[in-house]
UniProtKB/TrEMBL annotation:
It is a multi-pass membrane protein. Pfam families: Na_sulph_symp (PF00939). It comes from Scyliorhinus torazame. Belongs to the SLC13A/DASS transporter (TC 2.A.47) family. NADC subfamily. The chain crosses the membrane at residues 22-42, 70-96, 126-146, 166-183, 220-244, 256-286. PANTHER family: NA(+)_DICARBOXYLATE COTRANSPORTER 3, SOLUTE CARRIER FAMILY 13 MEMBER. It is found in: Membrane. Its main location: membrane. Keywords: Ion transport, Membrane, Sodium, Sodium transport, Transmembrane, Transmembrane helix, Transport. This is SLC13A3.
Length: 297
C-alpha cells in the first residue's frame, strides 16, 4: 500500500542519515584516539620528546623521566581519557544515542553481518604471516620490553649492568635500527652450509638506508634540535633569567593554582598554534617559573 511505501522510504532515509552520522563518528574518533594515545608513551608524540630533551638541558641531574616511568604514569590516564572520548563520540554519533536505533532491528543485524563478512574477506586476503612480518613483530616486542625494563624505578633494570648514565633509551632504539639494516627480509637458506659450491643468494634487509633517507621524518629531528638550541640560547643569552624576573609576581601563588593557570594558558595557546610550537615556547618559561617557586618542575 501507499502507507507501507512511505514507511519504507522514511526508514531508508533514516538509515542513510544514521550511516552518515556513524561515518562522522568514525572519522572524528581517529584524531581523538591519535591525540590521546600519543600521551601514553614518551615516543608517542613530538612534544613528549621535546619535554625530555629540555628537561635534561635545564636539569641535567634529573633521571626520573624515562620510557617506563612515563608509561606507568600516563598509560592509565590515556585509557581513562580514551574511555571518556568513546562515551562522548558514541553518545553524539551512534552507540549510546537511542535515536539511531529507532529503525528496524533486522536492518541493524543485516548491516552488522555485512560488516563482519567484509572484515573477514579482507582478513583472508592478507594471507599467512610472512617471514619479514614475523621478524619485525619479534623485534618490536623485544624493543618495547627493553624500553620498559631499562630503568623501571621500582626495581633495578638491565641498565644497572652498565655505568650510570652510560645507557639511555636511544641506545635501545639505535641498536634495533642497526639490526634491522642487517637482518634479512626473507628466510635465509642454509644450502651453502652443506654445499659450498651452491650459489650465494643475497636477501634484501628488513630496512635499507635508502628507505631511511626517504621515509625518516627529518623535520622532527630538526625540530627537536631547534628546541634544544632555543633552550640553550635562552640560557646563554640570559633570556631565561629575564623571564624568571618577569614571573616573579607568580612566586606567591600556590603551586596547585599555578598548574591550573598554566594548563589553561597552554590549552588556549594550542588553539592558535601547533602543539610543538607551544611546547618549545612554554617549556623554558615554565622551567624558570618552577625554579623561582622552588617546586618540582
Amino acid at each position: 500500500s501507499e502507507t507501507d511505501v512511505d514507511l519504507t522510504l522514511a526508514q531508508q532515509k533514516m538509515e542513510k542519515e544514521n550511516q552518515k552520522r556513524l561515518w562522522k563518528g568514525f572519522l572524528i574518533c581517529i584524531p581523538y584516539a591519535a591525540s590521546i594515545g600519543g600521551t601514553a608513551t614518551l615516543t608517542g608524540t613530538t612534544p613528549n620528546l621535546l619535554l625530555l630533551g629540555q628537561l635534561k638541558t635545564y636539569f641535567p641531574g634529573c633521571n626520573t623521566v624515562n620510557f617506563a616511568s612515563w608509561f606507568m604514569f600516563c598509560c592509565p590516564l590515556a585509557i581513562l581519557f580514551m574511555f571518556a572520548g568513546w562515551l562522548w563520540i558514541a553518545f553524539l554519533y551512534g552507540g549510546l544515542n537511542p535515536r539511531p536505533w529507532s529503525w528496524k532491528k533486522t536492518a541493524n543485524i543485516e548491516a552488522q553481518a555485512r560488516v563482519r563478512t567484509k572484515i573477514k574477506s579482507d582478513f583472508d586476503k592478507l594471507g599467512p604471516l610472512s617471514f619479514a612480518e614475523g621478524a619485525v613483530l619479534t623485534f618490536f616486542t623485544f624493543f618495547v620490553l627493553l624500553l620498559l625494563t631499562r630503568d623501571p624505578k621500582f626495581i633495578p633494570g638491565w641498565a644497572a649492568i652498565f655505568q650510570k648514565g652510560y645507557v639511555s633509551d636511544a641506545v635501545t632504539g639505535m641498536s634495533f635500527v642497526i639490526t634491522l639494516c642487517f637482518f634479512p627480509s626473507q628466510k635465509p637458506s642454509l644450502k651453502w652450509w652443506s654445499n659450498p659450491n651452491a650459489a650465494a643468494i643475497t636477501n634484501p634487509p628488513l630496512l635499507s638506508w635508502k628507505k631511511i633517507q626517504r621515509d625518516l621524518p627529518w623535520n622532527v629531528i630538526m625540530l627537536l634540535g631547534g628546541g634544544y638550541a632555543i633552550a640553550k640560547g635562552c640560557e646563554a643569552s640570559g633570556l631565561s633569567i629575564w623571564f624568571g624576573n618577569q614571573l616573579q609576581p607568580l612566586v606567591s601563588i600556590k603551586p596547585t593554582v599555578a598548574v591550573i593557570l598554566i594548563c589553561l594558558l597552554v590549552t588556549c595557546f594550542t588553539e592558535f598554534a601547533s602543539n610543538t610550537a607551544t611546547i618549545v615556547i612554554m617549556l623554558p618559561i615554565v622551567s624558570e617559573l618552577a625554579m623561582h617557586m622552588k617546586v618540582n618542575p
